[in-house]
Each structure stands twice: as C-alpha cells, then as structure tokens.
UniProtKB/TrEMBL annotation, chain A:
This is DNA excision repair protein ERCC-8. Pathway: Protein modification; protein ubiquitination. GO terms for biological process: proteasome-mediated ubiquitin-dependent protein catabolic process; protein polyubiquitination; response to light stimulus; transcription-coupled nucleotide-excision repair. Substrate-recognition component of the CSA complex, a DCX (DDB1-CUL4-X-box) E3 ubiquitin-protein ligase complex, involved in transcription-coupled nucleotide excision repair (TC-NER), a process during which RNA polymerase II-blocking lesions are rapidly removed from the transcribed strand of active genes. Following recruitment to lesion-stalled RNA polymerase II (Pol II), the CSA complex mediates ubiquitination of Pol II subunit POLR2A/RPB1 at 'Lys-1268', a critical TC-NER checkpoint, governing RNA Pol II stability and initiating DNA damage excision by TFIIH recruitment. The gene is ERCC8. It comes from Oryzias latipes (Japanese rice fish). Keywords: Chromosome, DNA damage, DNA repair, Nucleus, Phosphoprotein, Repeat, Ubl conjugation pathway, WD repeat. Its main location: nucleus. The keyword Nucleus applies. CDD domains: WD40 (cd00200).
TrEMBL record, chain B:
InterPro entries: UVSSA (IPR018610), UVSSA_C (IPR049431), UVSSA_N_a-solenoid_rpt (IPR049408). Residues 218-229 have a biased composition (Polar residues). The keyword ATP-binding does not apply. Keywords: Chromosome, Coiled coil, DNA damage, DNA repair, Metal-binding, Zinc, Zinc-finger. This is UV-stimulated scaffold protein A. Residues 176-203 form a coiled coil. Residues 528-548 have a biased composition (Low complexity). Its main location: nucleus. The gene is uvssa. It comes from Oryzias latipes (Japanese rice fish). GO terms for molecular function: RNA polymerase II complex binding; zinc ion binding. It comes from the Eukaryota.
C-alpha cells in the first residue's frame, strides 16, 4: 500500500494502478461485517437486488412476498456501525404492489427517479420512485423470469423480458408498448442481459440449455448461440445443436467491460465465453452448486486487477478469480439458498440476498483493524473494559486448572 | 500440539460422546477443558472432532457433542469463531433446520437435543449476539424463517400448542360439569344421608344403652374410658355392676351369656379370664369369674344358648344347667362378702365389645344391618366419588369440606358398627331354621334363589331335582348314594317327567342344575348334615362319600349294560346281501357269527392311566450360552439324553454320569476334523471376514458374540427386534415362502388337472 502510494506520488504509476490494487485488496478482504447491517423488511426470500450506478447510494430489493424496498447504503453518521435504512417500501398494503413474487428489480440506468420490476403475477411495472406508483404496467401471458435494461443505451430504451414463453419480448419505454419479439428458444427464458459494450447486443439464457446472442436490429434471428464444445462435433453428444450447458441455463452476466460473458447452469457449472466470438474460454471453475429453478443473479467485480466473480452457491457466495477459475473464498453467512448478489463498484462491497430473507452486506475488513487488534494484545486490560470486546475474550474459569 | 495430547483429546471426546448419558462426565470434561486451554490449535482439533461427532447418525452422540460444544462456546473466543463460521451446519445438525436432514433416532433424545439446542442458541444470542454477526443472523433465521418460539421451552410447534390448550379447556369444562353434577347430587342426598346417620346412631344407642346408664353420660361411644375405671377400682365398680346386670336382664335380654360356647372353647387358664372379649360380661360377672364358679357358669350359658337357637352342634348338647341359677348364685356370692380386699382380682378387658342378637333386639339389629349395608354400598362410595371430583377439579373449598365432613361421619358410623361386633351368625342360622320350619309361610319372603343354595328346604327339593327322600323314606338321603357315584346319579325312583328333564339338564354342563350338583359334590356333606337332623352315622358317611369322590370315574361299556344277560345276537353279523327287486344271489348266509365280536361284547378293558403329574424337574444340562437346559422332559431330554441329577453348574452329581459325559465329549472332539480347529478358524475368519462357524465350534470357550463398540449408547437397531419383526422373519422366510408357494401351486394344479376341461371351473 505504501509502495503504491509513493509510486503514485512520484508519478511512476498510473492512477488506475493504485486504484486497482486497492480495490483488489479490498475485495479479497470481504467479510461479513458486524458493523454493517441491512434492515430486515422482507418476510420472505429475496429474489433480486440492484444498486443504482449514478450515486451508488440506493439499493433496490425485490422479495418473494412481492415487496420492493429501497435502502440507503450511504453511511453519513461517521461511526463504523451502520444499519442500512429502508428509505421507502412498496409493502403489501400498497395498492400497486405485485401480487406474487417479484423476480427482478432494476434501476433505470440514468436516473434514480425510476425503476422497473417484474413479477410472477405476469406484470412488469415501471415505478416512479418519488410517488411509488407505477408509471407504466406491461402485462404478459406468462410468468416473467427476468428483464434487463441496457446500461449504456443511448439510441433506444428497450427492456428485454424473459418469460415462461420462449419468445423474448422487447418493451419500449418511450412508447410503453411491446415492440419486438425475438424467437429462437425452445423453453422458458430464465435470464436476459444487454451487453455493456454494444447497445444493441443482447444475450439470453433459456431452460433449453442454450444461450443466444442477439442483435436487436436484426429481426431474422440470433447472431449465434454459445456452444460449450466450440463446434467440436466429436465431443458433443448426439445433440446437433449448440448447447451452452447440459442443464437449464439460469444465470447470465457480462463482465463490466462487456468482453466476456459468464453463464451458470443447473449442471453445476459456470462457463466464461468470449462475447464477441461466442467461444468457450474453457475456464474451469469447478463445481458451482446451483439448484435454483428460476433465474440466478450473480455479479462480477469492477475495477480490480484480476477481476472476481461472485456466484451464489448453495447457502454461501463463492468468489472466483474470473480468468483463472480459482476459488478465492466462500462467503458463508446465509442460512438458506442465496438467490442474488450485487457488487458495489465504488465501495467494493457485496450485497447478497437469500431465501432466509436476509440481505447481507459483505464489507472489506480494513487492515487498520488488524493493527488495532495487535495493540489490543498489548493493553488487554483496557480492551476488556468495553462490553463488545468482552464477548470476544476467552473466559476460562480458574477451576479448570 | 503434541501427539499424545491429540490422542488424549480424541479419546476424551469419544468417551464423552459415546457415554450415552444425558449429562457429561465432569472429570473428563475438566480434563478436556484443561487441554483446550493450552492453545488455539487444541481448540481447532477439538472443534473438528466435535463436528465429526455431530455428524454421527446417533442422537445421543450428537447430544453429548453439543453439550461439549456449548461448554467450550462459553469459554473460548476461538471456538466461538470456529463454530459461528460454520453455524449453518451446526444448526442443521442440532436444531434440524434442514427438513431433508432430520435428526437421527432415538426420538426422545432427538427431541431433547432440539429443545436444548434452541435454548442454548437463545442464551448465546443474548450474551454473544452483538459480537458475532452470524450468530445473530442464525438466531433471527430460527426465529423468523423457522418460526421457532424461543419462549416456549418445549419448542413445540404452534399447532401442538393450540391442541394442548384445547385439551386443557376441554378438561376444564368436563371438570366443571362434574363438579356441578356432584354438588347437585350431594345436595339431594345430603338429607337422606343425614337421616341414615341419625337412624344408625339411634339404633346403635338402642343396642348399647349401657353407655348411657352404666358409664358416664359424657362419653357414650368410647370404651377405652370404661376400662381404666373398671380396672382401677374393682370394688367401687361393684354396685354399678349389679345395676348393669339388672339392666342387661331387663332391657336387652341376656346378651352376655350367649358367649358361652366361645368361653368354653377357651381353656379357662387359672385365675385369669383370658381375653373374654366381652366387656359387658366382664362387668356383669365380675365376681363370677373366679375359677370355682367357672364350670357351672359355662354350663348355664350353654343351656341358654341351646334354648335360644335350636340348631346347635350335637357335641354341645350334653351340658345343661339352669340359667337362673347363675344369676341367683352370683348374687348371693356378691352379697356374702366373700370378696375381701385381700382378694386380688385381675380383669383383662379387651377393648372390643360384642353384641348378640336376640329376639328382643332383632328388629333393631336388622335395621342396623340394613343401614350399614346402605352406607357401605351406597353412601360411602358416592361420597368418596364426590371428594375425588372436588379435589381433582380444585373446586370450591366449601363443597369439599362438606363432602369430607360427610365422609368422616359416615366412616365414623361404620366404625362404630364394627366396634359393636354384632353377631350375625345366630341371626342367619335362625333365619334358616325359620324358613325350613315355616312351610306355610305363603312365600312372602323368598330368600334369593339364583345360583347356589347349599341348603334346600324340604318342600323345594323336588323342584331342585333332588330326591325327595326325607319325606318319602326314613333313610338318610346320603345312604341312597351308591359307593361309586357318577356326577349325577340317576335316582331309581324318579318317575315324573319333570325330574327326568332336570336330570338331563344336569348332564348338560352349562345348566344351572349341573353346576348345582357339582357344587353339592364338592362341598361335601357336612353342611347338609348340620341342616338335617344330626345322626351319629353322618361322619362315617361323609368319609365314604369323600372316598367315592376320590375314586376315578370311568366310562362303562356295553358289557356292563348287558351284565349277566345272554345276548341273543351278540357277535352276529347280518348280511343284507342284496336289495335288488328281482335278482338274488344263489345262496346267502344271512347271519354270520363272529367270534371276535362276541368276545368283545363280553370282555371288558378298563384303562386307568392314573393322574397326570406335571414334570417339575429340568434337564439342567449346561448349554453353550452358559445357561442350563430348561427343558422339562419326564425321562429323557431330546438333546442331552436321560435326565440325571446335576449340581448348580449343570455337572452330573453321580460320578458314573460324569465319566460318561466326559467320554462323549472326548469322542465328539475326536470326530471333529483337524481343520476345524477353533483357534485356526477364528484366525481365518479374522483374516477373511467370513463366518466359518468357529463360534459354534468352540462354543464353550468363546463367550458371547463380538462386543458392541459403544455399549453405553442405545442400540438403534434394537428397535427392529420386536415380536412383529421376529414374526416377519419367520413368516417371510425364504424357505417358508417357497413351501407355501409350493403348496398353493400344488392345490392349484390339482384343481386344474381335475377341472380344466370343465368350462365352469376353467374360468376361475
């Protein structure tokens, strides 16, 4: 750290370098921090969380009970102990609340005044954050698994919607209508993602174990579908079509630069693809437990020098190095399956939501605290005085001698 | 951490967890804690050991492991961190958070573990929740997702609790209704009981008026008071006594004197009148109790007795004297002043008192009896029931007290009645004589007739299917009986159809008549002899009757039936050759004489196998299991040969037997081939893991089967060894199944063979 700082001061290093080094260090130190809590609003599992990118301050969460909550993540109290307050809630008493489980919540990428939620009650609602009333409601014939807004789109404002119906719907926020349908999948679409690099590129994952990449300007069909064997017919089983996984594909995520695409499937695998060519990079992440029958939301770090990927894996969150597939750590803290996680790129924090109704904040443990502990060792008597520390002390009674 | 320490830790943990006890051994626990205290490495090690024990599929192991964990949890920060890091798994293994991973058996222990774990988690949360985030999360998870109610120590589910409440409410309702009913009932019958009590009280007072006259008015019921008085001041008592005597004579008959026979039976032991058991009499005849007067007095009593009740044993008849004499004799004796102060008089008064029934107090006594019966059978049970109801449902104290009072007074009445020792014997005797004497009774009071009546009045004998001999013939009925008597001897003179029918009924073991006759036989005749006029021959008769009863009853055959008669067609076989209408065989010998048959009809075999005596001895040959053979064969055990006397350990007592047994043993061993050496086989078995049967071979040397690994833990497989499972093993045995299947298929095949060509059967 000091070396980086002096190098930075001397102008030897790129400013980005220091930043990367520090954020990597922070990511590696992610821990379940007793100082950070998130208000417990949801009475049931949490299906989706999203952090807005403009300020990085507000977090949306959608629960299986149909409730949507907005949290304030910023700690202005000046104390390390902080509980993320729920700013506002679309509770069960709200007239416009989703009837069934909310599957996906997303901020409008350019403004916190609007967010979009989709639910198993076959509706997708565009909400006005101020009034907490839906500005627009899109209705579908079947359950909605996932929807996504392009984070970089300037020329369109399309929402891609994956439903139980194999056809992918594109809804236009400008006109408030479903303007386009992408056909090609044979089973329900569990996940959709816009490329963060090209605004018209869309990737979709389906239960027919295929992942297709589309250019929405081209109506005739997908650009290509990802093939786990890279076209090697000898390896592929009798199946002639290209499959990305051997089971349902339920998770999809671009890296922040948009060059790579990550997919997870119920075959307990995660695969990394070159998003330009659709080539399987064959990074072996090992077994990634995945029992979800719905979409899975996982996330990739941003601004670290080896990038990390955070994947829900049973009741814990697995952290892998993106390009080597090395398992860094398992973040264990949930008491039930984890369904979603979101990386906060500014603070290098991770938020995860699970079926146990908890949203856990994984906050980097600073090195300073280590030094503090060492000093604690020196003057133990002083440390003992504080009640919080007492719980951390050993309490061997003298009768065991 | 050194190796020996590691080993010791593992050992300790294994011992602690496999103890099967609900509590940990404090000494071992202390040792473990001591080791853990040394360093965090040790705690790491202990933690891993504990987790592996927690993963065992046995709840007792888990419970003990959990207890160790909770001990360490409260002490070591490092252990807390480790455990909290893996808290999900810990909860799964102890609180059953994962429904697909239920706690293993045994069930009760699992329940205990669960509730204990929930309690412990709560206490952990209270003390460490703020410091360990995951602990708090786990607590909230249990509380909110798993809906565990931490207040409810039983860790019951909501539905269970509701059911419990419902049950309680129901019980309350029932109790309330019961209390109300009981209270109402009490109200209703309170009056009746009161009146019964007063009646009883007054009856008793009538029976024992001396309380009021002779003794002090203040305590009429307590006899203990009178005793010291009479003992301490015999002289002072005298005038009182005479007064009492007159009282007794005038008021309630000569009650005391009826004790005569009893007194006679007691040997008059010297000066002391031992245990006469009758205070009244004592008082009455204070001066008569000296030895010279004793004999006459007894005689008088006997005479009196005789006159009072007509039915008396003949043996008592001889003595007779005048009863008035006694009184007259007594009085002069007293007035003569023979009793000086030097004359010591020992009175041994027993606390009890007897009341004899006489003609005078008959009505009172019968009332008392009735009342007593009423109280015993009706009132007391009812009151007891109320008391029970009231106490059980914690009803109003007033009610309970009232019921208790009632009960106490009822019991007091019963007790008083008991203390009186009213002699009912004479009463029942007299009643009987009454019924037998008063033939012209118009059958007003019909004594109960159902069931067994040992004494049947003469006029009803015919009705009961008995020979009406006493009236028709002068001889005793018993003399009519043949020496060898069938259960129901056919009386020769019976002519009437009714009697015949009764006789038939007697043959039927289910009829009342048969039971009656059987009973009559069983309770041999003394009863009857006492009821009928006493004769000297009765005793000898009863003896012969007993002999007859002991003699075996054997069925008789045809030969006896035709005894002494010439049977015309005995042994002849009539051949009815052909019943054809026209066709008749040429010559037919219609009758064929069969010698054998003829002889058979004249010969007689009586087989008398004797009586079955159950075998009371055991074989007692030593078995392989170390026990003794428990077979009870009469002469020879099918496994161990003839039964010979053996000592405690099953060795034969006689030397020749022992020798023989040893020889046999040796021969057996020699017959065994070399390769079947038990040691060798055991080695092979150990090496290969197959059972070659070495256990059977060296049965006596090797005790028991392979020892259980953890004898303290309850065996999970044991539950499978129920009677049901054993039966299942038998019934669903492969060979059994095969056999049954064979039999069934055989039957099927037979049917098929027989009827397969018939349309009707072929279909089913």
């Amino acid at each position: 750290m000091l070396g980086f700082l002096t190098a930075r001061r001397a102008g030897l290093d790129d400013p980005l370098r220091l930043r990367r080094a520090e954020s990597t260090r922070r990511v590696l130190n992610l821990k379940l921090n007793p100082d950070r809590d998130v208000d417990r609003i949801h009475g049931n599992g949490i299906n989706s969380i999203d952090i807005e990118t403009i300020e990085g301050r507000y977090m949306l969460s959608g629960g299986a009970d149909g409730v949507i909550v907005i949290y304030d993540l910023e700690n202005y109290s000046g104390k390390p102990q902080y509980t993320c307050k729920a700013v506002c809630t679309v509770g069960r008493s709200n007239r416009h609340v989703h009837k069934f489980s909310v599957e996906t919540v997303l901020w409008y990428p350019y403004d916190t005044g609007m967010f979009v939620s989709s639910s198993f009650d076959k509706t997708m609602k565009v909400w006005d954050t101020e009034t907490l009333k839906p500005a627009e409601v899109f209705e579908f014939e079947s359950n909605i698994y996932n929807h996504h807004l392009s984070p970089i789109a300037r020329k369109h404002s399309l929402i891609a919607v994956g439903t139980k119906n194999p056809k992918i719907q594109l809804c236009d926020l400008k006109s408030g209508s479903k303007i386009h349908v992408l056909q090609g999948h044979k089973a329900e679409v569990l996940s959709v993602r816009w490329s963060p690099r090209y605004e018209h590129i869309l990737a979709t994952a389906s239960a027919d174990s295929k992942v297709k990449v589309w250019d929405v300007r081209r109506a005739s069909g997908s650009l290509f579908s990802l093939d786990q064997d890279n076209g090697d017919k000898s390896k592929s089983s009798s199946e002639a079509v290209n499959t990305a996984h051997n089971g349902r594909v339920n998770g999809l995520s671009f890296t922040s630069d948009g060059l790579f695409l990550l997919t997870t499937g119920t075959d307990d695998r995660m695969r990394l693809w070159n998003s330009a060519t659709g080539e399987n990079t064959l990074v072996n992440y090992g077994k990634v437990c995945n029992e979800s029958r719905k979409g899975l939301q996982f996330t990739v770090s941003q601004g670290c020098s080896p990038e990390f990927v955070f994947v829900p894996c049973g009741s814990s969150v697995a952290v892998y190095v993106l390009h080597t597939g090395e398992l860094v750590t398992m973040l264990r803290g949930h008491y039930n399956n984890v369904d979603c996680c979101k990386f906060h790129p500014d603070h290098q924090e991770l938020y995860s939501g699970g079926k146990d109704g908890n949203i856990l904040a994984w906050v980097p443990v600073l090195r300073a605290s280590d030094m503090e502990e060492e000093s604690d060792q020196k003057n133990k008597g002083a440390a003992d005085s504080s009640a919080g520390n007492r719980a951390l002390q050993d309490a061997w009674s003298s009768d065991e001698d | 951490m050194e190796l020996p320490q590691r080993e010791r830790t593992a050992e300790l943990i294994e011992e602690l967890t496999t103890s099967g006890q609900g509590q940990l051994n404090p000494d071992k626990m202390k040792e473990l804690k001591k080791i853990c205290k040394v360093s965090n490495d040790c705690i790491d090690h202990v933690y891993h050991l504990l987790m592996s024990q927690l993963n065992q599929d046995h709840c007792e192991i888990r419970l003990s492991a959990f207890q160790i964990a909770s001990e360490l949890f409260s002490r070591s920060h490092h252990f807390r961190t480790l455990l909290v890091d893996n808290f999900q798994e810990f909860l799964e293994l102890t609180v059953e958070t994962d429904t697909e991973q239920p706690l293993p058996p045994p069930k009760e222990v699992a329940k205990k573990l669960r509730s204990l774990a929930i309690q412990t988690v709560q206490s952990w949360q209270a003390s460490y929740g703020s410091a360990y985030k995951k602990l708090a999360l786990g607590y909230h998870f249990l509380k909110q997702v798993k809906k565990v109610d931490f207040q409810d120590l039983e860790a019951r589910t909501i539905s269970e609790r509701r059911r419990e409440e419902e049950r309680q409410r129901k019980m309350e309702r029932i109790y309330k209704a019961r209390v109300e009913a009981a209270a109402k009932e009490m109200e209703e019958s309170y009056q009746e009981m009161e009146s019964t009590l007063t009646e009883m009280e007054s009856c008793l007072r009538l029976l024992l008026p001396e309380f009021g006259v002779a003794d002090f008015q203040t305590d009429t019921s307590s006899h203990s008071n009178t005793q010291p008085a009479s003992e301490g001041l015999p002289d002072v008592q005298q005038p009182c006594c005479s007064k009492a005597l007159t009282d007794v004579e005038t008021e309630s008959g000569i009650r005391g004197r009826e004790d005569g026979p009893e007194e006679e039976n007691r040997t008059p032991a010297g000066n002391k009148n031992q245990d006469t058991g009758n205070e009244e009499e004592e008082k009455t005849f204070t001066d008569c109790s000296d030895p010279p007067k004793k004999g006459t007095e007894n005689k008088e009593h006997n005479k009196e007795e005789k006159r009072q009740s007509e039915v008396k044993d003949g043996s008592e008849e001889g003595e007779s004297s005048e009863e008035e004499e006694s009184v007259e004799e007594c009085l002069p004796l007293r007035s003569s002043g023979l009793i000086s102060h030097a004359y010591s008089l020992d009175l041994n008064l027993s606390p009890g008192l007897h009341v004899k029934e006489t003609e005078d107090n008959e009505a009172v006594v019968s009332t008392v009896i009735e009342l007593h019966k009423l109280i015993q059978t009706k009132h007391l049970p009812a009151v007891q029931g109320w008391v029970q109801v009231f106490t059980k449902s914690r009803a109003d104290e007033q009610l309970l007290r009232r019921a208790l009072d009632l009960k106490r007074s009822l019991e007091g009445a019963v007790q008083k009645h008991k203390e009186l020792h009213i002699d009912y014997q004479t009463r029942s005797c007299r009643e009987k004589t009454d019924t037998s004497d008063d033939d012209d009774d118009d059958f007003d009071e019909v004594p109960e007739k159902e069931g067994y009546e040992p004494h049947i009045p003469e006029h009803m004998r015919a009705e009961y299917g008995l020979d009406p001999s006493p009236s028709t013939s002068t001889a005793q009925p018993k003399q009519k009986r043949p020496p060898v008597k069938r259960p129901a001897p056919p009386p020769p003179q019976t002519t009437s159809r009714r009697l015949m029918r009764l006789l038939e009924e007697q043959q039927d073991p289910t009829s009342a008549a048969a039971t009656l006759s059987l009973l009559r036989q069983k309770i041999s005749l003394p009863h009857q002899s006492s009821s009928s006029s006493g004769a000297a021959s009765s005793s000898s008769q009863s003896a012969s009757g007993q002999q007859a009863a002991q003699a075996p009853v054997v069925p008789f055959g045809l030969d006896l039936y035709y005894w002494g008669q010439e049977q015309p067609n005995a042994g002849k076989i009539i051949k009815s050759a052909s019943q054809h209408q026209f066709w008749v065989p040429a010559e037919v010998e219609e009758e064929v004489e069969n010698k054998e048959l003829l002889e058979q009809s004249k010969s007689r075999y009586i087989s008398f196998p004797g009586r079955f005596v159950p075998v009371s001895h055991f074989c007692r040959a030593p078995l392989g299991s170390g026990k003794l053979c428990q077979r009870q064969d009469r002469l020879k055990c099918p496994f161990h040969g003839p039964i010979i006397p053996r000592d405690e350990e099953g060795r034969p007592c006689r030397p020749e037997d022992r020798q023989r047994e040893e020889q046999e043993e040796r021969r057996k061993r020699e017959q065994e081939p070399d390769w079947r050496d038990a040691e060798l086989m055991r080695d092979i078995e150990a090496a290969t893991g197959e059972d070659l049967g070495s256990d059977r071979l060296g049965g006596k040397k090797k005790k028991g089967k392979k020892k259980k690994k953890y004898p303290n833990l309850s065996d999970l497989k044991q539950s499978s060894d129920t009677s049901r499972s054993r039966l299942e093993r038998k019934v669903f045995n492969k060979s059994t199944m095969r056999r049954v299947a064979q039999v069934l298929s055989k039957a099927d095949r037979r049917k098929h063979d027989k009827f397969s060509n018939q349309f009707n059967y072929a279909l089913n």
